[in-house]
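Q: Fold this one first, please.
A: Sequence and structure below.
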Amino acid sequence: MENFELPLVLFTLLTQIAVGMTIFAALRQWSTVEGATAQSRNEWLTIFALVVVAVVAAFFHLGKPLGFFRMLNNLGSAWLSREILGFALFGLLAAVTFYMVYARTPNGLLFKLTAVIGLLAVFTTGMAYSSAGIDAIHNLLPQIFFLLTVFTLGPACASYFVGEKSQGLLAAVLSPTLLASLAVRFVVPFAWLAGNTVTRISGQNFLTSPLHWIHLVVLLAGFITVQRSKTIPSWLPIVLLFGELLGRIAFFALTVFSSANLGGLY
């Protein structure tokens, strides 16, 4: 944290897109099971590819990449270890699901299981970053931020793999999620200003950062677009991805550790 943590930005963002797409693929599983169309195969290939790229990116965060297996040493006490296990299982299930869809033998139960494991993995990510050493996010905020990303970029990116009939469902989910995300991300930095010295610094960092405000503008533009058109234009997922990328960089770079005020008064 407090750095431009590109490996973590990519890992968290890409895995959350993959989980979001999986959820909506599972919700549409009846049509996918019946057809196993080229679109559904491409969708699951994209989900699996996102997980692979995310895992590769995460390796660049490790001091000793060849010792990656040690990340599972503390499953009983460390949320980071549980996060790694969760996404390993999610990636394995995504690979199996892609194979079954490609072989035209998809399984609706497997779709649902993959989506549930993905959501649990996102939960572990939220717990891993609600660190006691970072006052501003030592709470449920990481969970909220990450789930908002799941239900923003999930339906947005899933729109590339559905027909017109399913666009309405995705837009109906995306529109209120964009509004909720806009409200939460606007209010939170102001709420931080009422906290202790370190929390206040985080709030000030966000409120003076172009990253934060551009992210909010993107969310607002996305909400207005979906509300007016009741569909998801092909350009919108790309714009939303750009906004979420800036927001995730802000999350890692602008929230400060308690040590920022080491020796000072609270």
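Q: Good. Now the second chain.
A: Here it is, same layout.
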Amino acid sequence: MKTKLSVFEFELKEKFIAKYPVDVRDESKLMIVHRDTGEIEHKVFKDIIDYFDEDDCMIFNNTKVFPARLFGKKEKTGAQIEVFLLRELNKESRLWDVLVDPARKIRVGNKLYFTDKEDNEILVAEVVDNTTSRGRTIRFFFDGTDEEYHAILRTLGNTPIPKYMDREPEAIDTERYQTVYASEVGAVAAPTAGLHFSKTLLKRLEIKGVHLPKVTLHVGLGTFRDIEVEDLSKHKMEAEYYSIPIETVKAVNKSKAAGRKVCSVGTTSMRTIESAVSATGTLKQSEGWTNLFVYHPFEFSIANCMITNFHLPKSSLMIMASAFAGHELLLKAYEEAKKKNYRFFSYGDAMLIL
């Protein structure tokens, strides 16, 4: 039954969807969910420090969101086209996988022109392939250096906040739709469980002796794409690049061997570490692409606790949280969250599953 998509449906009124972040990162609400007893507690996020001790371990995804949403004009007609950069396929030839909107207007061979605020043309791209109904491969034409080229892309781009926020990106999103520890550029969406951590809270955890190792998983839109099959075993995740350095492996395995808490900060960190499990059930140094889809029943090998947000119904993120917490307990927690006016989705509140 728990491998059926329909069991992950629940009613969620629009008033619960967070369209803006709270004023202070670590003052969002925090729900503590105890798997062993079913107990639920209500805290403020910065109280999370009370649940971790010396030699416990929190695993963070240090990916950095790049301004992936561009607006260009189609040749001849001048129609505005949204171009969402997904993945750079070839740095030398400046090929990208992108989504375009409206897609019906964009065909192979079309050229797109990108201009600055004064409407001066500064970049041109050509559509070279169709990949999906909305997907295209495009090639940018630019004669300058790679540094100049990427600087122009950053200038043209907008922070890619999720469409369900139903608003345009604002100045606040440049800072807040990014974790304070983001360092590795490559994501088109933020690892949102990490958005709750302030620099002050991280320093307090460090002083307490909690290990804070990093992994990298460049979040793609595939993580958030609708699941279109009822049988979850037939769903295929899009591959995302990940990397786990040796210093993270050492810190995680040391805490694991000592029986300490090993906490995955978010579903993306969880996908990363569960993609690199050794034959002995420990974390191993690894780099590559993962399309791991976690759903019940799944045996988690590395983390024994997890921080996550409150997710969209029938999303791969909710399905993973359900596999970790237990389905009935997670649904109970979501209903409790609605009663207590928790905020849902990317800018919403957080849950610590113990």
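Q: Anything worth noting on the second one?
A: The mean pLDDT is 94.
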